[in-house]
Design a protein that fits this description.
Blueprint: H1 25-37, H2 41-44, H3 53-56, H4 68-76, H5 80-86, H6 99-103, H7 110-123, H8 127-133, H9 137-146, H10 174-179, H11 197-209, H12 212-219, H13 221-249
Helix pairs in contact: 1-5, 4-7, 9-13, 11-13, 12-13
């Protein structure tokens, strides 16, 4: 009498409850392989007892259609369609607080796995990634053009009234506190955007070498063009500065 082989991997393709056309199998495998190939994957996923502790302690699970346990189960069973479906909306509900990782008895990190899925969604130019990241275009443009988004003295009850009483946890007499710290600081709106030109060039280089700009081109080509043009101008300014320094030495 032969025994039936068992596997944790789910091979069923097709969701009878979904009205969406099935995604090509090769595409599903490519997406999962990109997630699995990341060096962090084996560190973040060790198995699953299906105990539900991660979901019970997850803030996002209380307010959204999101479950850290579901994410772990989908990846552990290599449920390709389920993984793809979760990447369309659910993974963007995670707050990245990593409470799940701190509580999991198996040492899993659902939050870390969500990060891998988000990065893969960006790599593949998924519409969910574009929709989520679109509001951050202004933030990214300001970072690349000035080096900063905001300064500590901007975090106060007047600017963040929607934070309610929680604002008192970070609202502090900065001028008084800074006097006790014997170091220069760009802590006010008057100086926060005075960024050294060399620092800006280094920031651009980091974004290039780490693939941030490649991902940006996939998600928002128009913003990519604006930022690269700005970077080219800054680099020209830096080259001019270096030439002036050489002329002064001569």
């Amino acid at each position: 009498m032969s025994e039936t082989a068992t596997s944790r991997v789910q091979t069923h393709i097709g969701d009878p409850l979904s009205q969406e056309p099935p995604v090509d199998r090769d595409k599903l495998e490519e997406i999962f392989q990109d997630i699995q190939a990341d060096l962090r994957f084996d560190h973040e996923l060790n198995g699953c007892l299906n105990c539900g502790i991660c979901t019970a302690t997850c803030p996002a699970a209380h307010y959204y259609d999101f479950s850290p346990r579901e994410i772990v189960q989908l990846l552990w069973t290599e449920n390709l369609e389920g993984i793809y479906d979760a990447m369309q909306e659910k993974i963007w509900a995670c707050a990245q607080c990593y409470t799940c990782a701190a509580r999991c008895p198996f040492g899993n990190s659902p939050g870390g796995l969500v990060m891998l899925m988000r990065e893969t969604a960006i790599k593949h130019g998924m519409e969910s990634a574009k929709n989520v990241l679109r509001p951050f275009s202004r933030v990214m443009l300001k970072l690349i053009s000035t080096g900063n988004q905001l300064s500590p003295d901007m975090i106060n009850p007047q600017h963040f009234a929607d934070w309610g009483p929680n604002i008192t946890k970070i609202d502090a007499p900065l001028k008084t506190l800074r006097k006790a710290i014997p170091m220069p600081t760009l802590n006010t709106t008057a100086t926060a955007w005075e960024v050294n030109l060399k620092t800006s060039i280094e920031l651009y280089t980091i974004w290039e070498e780490t693939g941030v700009l490649d991902q940006l081109e996939t998600i928002d080509e128009n913003l990519f063009d604006v930022i690269t043009d700005f970077m080219d101008e800054k680099r020209d300014d830096w080259e001019d500065f270096l030439e002036e320094q050489e002329d002064d030495e001569d």
